[in-house]
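User: I'm putting together a teaching handout on how sequence relates to shape, and I'd like one worked example. Could you take histidine kinase from Natrinema versiforme, show the sequence you're using, and then write out its predicted structure as tokens right after it?

Assistant: Happy to. First the sequence, then the structure tokens directly below it.
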Amino acid sequence: MSKQTQPPEHDVLGLETGLEALQASPEFHGPVEPVAEHDSYDHLALLYETQGEQFATAIPYIEQGLERGERCLYIADENDTDAVLTALRDAGVDVDGALESGALTMHTAQDSYLRYGEFDPDDMIAFLADAIEEAEDEYEGLRITGEMTWVFGDDPPLEALIEYESKLNRVLPDANGIALCQYNRERFPAETIRDVIKTHPHLIYDRTVCQNFYYTPPEEFFGPDQPAREIDRMMGTLLDRTEARAELQHNQQHLERQNEITADPDCSFEEKLQDLFDLGCERFDLELGAMARIDVDDDWFELEYVSDDHEQFRPGVELPLSETYCAAATEIETAESVTDPQADGYGDVTVYNEFGLRAYLGTYVPVEGGADRTFFFVSPDRRDEAFTDDERTFLRLLGQWVKYQLEQEQRESHERTLYEIAADPDRSFEEKLQAMFELGCERFDLDLGGLARIDPATDSFEVEAVSNEHEYLVPGAQAPLSETYCRLTVDDESTAGVTDPVRAGFGDTLAYNEFGVETYLGSRIELENEPDRTFFFVSADAHDRAFTDAERTFHHLMSQWVQYELERKQRERALEDSNERLEQFAYAASHDLQEPLRMVTSYLQLLETRYGDAFDEDGEEFLEFAVDGAERMREMIDGLLEYSRVSTRGDPFEPVELEAVLEDVRADLQFHIEESNADIEIEQLPRVDGDASQLRQVFQNLLCNAITYSGEEPPQVRVSAKRRSREWVISVRDEGIGIDPDDHERVFTVFDRLHGREEYEGTGIGLALCQRVVERHGGDIWVDSEPGEGATFSFTLPVA
């Protein structure tokens, strides 16, 4: 039965279903439009010149029929059946299963067209009618295609072939079937091809689906008035072509204007949208252009943009979607129109009764990762004529641009949010992970995000974290990895998606049967020295489409961040363990060195006390060297002991006024400051969270160094602070001897001194201690300096 004679809800075979596979292929283009005054769109002719062109149409045609649950009947002649079956297998069709089940039947011309030894049009029509009736009992319908080169085998009259083709046009509108007749243009006479063209409503030629302007209905083709009617049709075709050319030029102007608007790099999205509204109002002769957010499931409509002022139809207006004309577009997900609201069933909706809108042309704009939209034009004036196919096509082009822009904006927004989450220094890993879960659920339209430990070797899966409550997917829950969708990230690609669990082979798994997961998108995260993870999102609702490349790429970005954070935590734990062992060693070593050093010092003191008078001048000098060396060793051991205790023996952090800390340091260094005639200028300093005693050590070391290395002139020291995002930068600047850039890193190394002790005293541990304290506070320390131009030591502390 033809698609045009069936109720709308009954999906039958016709032109639209027959060409879906071809229209979805990049090898074909259109558009495909119905032939005026003709009700049958179920009969197509393929004109080809090579086997490649032939199979490029015939194989997808059969493949789609099998996918739709139809029986497919192939009549081979020019190619043997094995060649056809091989081509189907190469296209990924389960040929053996289709043949065994009866979904695919292969015939030759001898057991179909010529089954009684010669061709009889009525006999062949009866053969196909019986095949369609038999197919309807078990399948969605019958899809037929036949290679027509058998005509030349037994030389049947070509008139009989044309009669058969014309009669097929009468059968198919009332039967649930569709037919594709294949004609090799290199083998058929031009006169026959001409008649074939006249007897098929639609043609496929040169990888293009064509509306056949030259189609002649059977009653005209074989009727007594054929010449006069053919002349009328030819003249009508010429007139149609002339009018179409004029309309094409008109359309071309609007397309060029659309391209100018959308390609303008200096206009914002809102400015381009307004220009497109103006263009559409001119093109469709309607008063207002608009765009609205919609949710079909929740019956929700919110007006987002309107091109001009209207008393009630303004941005922000919310209505049930069912109270608007946009419901028409969303039902079929394409361009739809209303020209007579009452006749079209909209006489009682709000936009008609309250807003006074009487004409509408709109298209549904599904937005990946965001709220869907409708893009439309309306007018308070009724429209006498129906909208043309050209107008609908132009509106769809506008809607496609809007879709692209909205999805690009949505992707950029999600990426910005992703980077903001990842870069936020105030959130813990667990807080960031929850924010990532929420972002992913919004981006992929799924219910729950999760992180799980996996081990393919032991077939183990253990949930580590989830975004929401779930009966089964809770932290600590375990299952065999092979019973989850996450096994795909191990067996196949690192990022995998499932939208049809049964078809993907998960119909008997725990994930599907017990956990109730219908949709899944996940990535594997491989780690060293600890179990791998899977980062995933799932939903109990089935998705009606596969995940796009953009969604997979975004998920991969998210999983890369999770991997980086897990590896960073792993490195931090390793570093903490290493530092703890180092501190233990430094403490033990410095503590154990104290006792023998005290013994050396004691005996040196005894030597000086008891035998000091017996030493000559050299002996006294040697003794002095020994005492001085022991004292310096004691200072170094004390410094090392203090260095090792920075992390383990520090006080808890609390609010600290740095100005008060610096005043205490100045008081401790008062004698040193007065003796050197130092001038210390202090700007306003902030309050931070920290260990006051350790921060005091930092300032004391930096001020002492600034005074000590001042050179010949009295020290000039300036202490300042400035805020940089979420941290304070504290700087201590002097006008002293400076430091060579090659030595900027060395000054923070334990016991590494740039000057001999005869020039400057010290143990060489002060700046290393400063670095240790600053790092404990979550900051960095560095120096900017050139020889002879002073030095600025800066360190950062988090804002309280």
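A couple of points you could highlight for students: The chain has a mean pLDDT of 82. The first strand starts at residue 43 and ends at 48.
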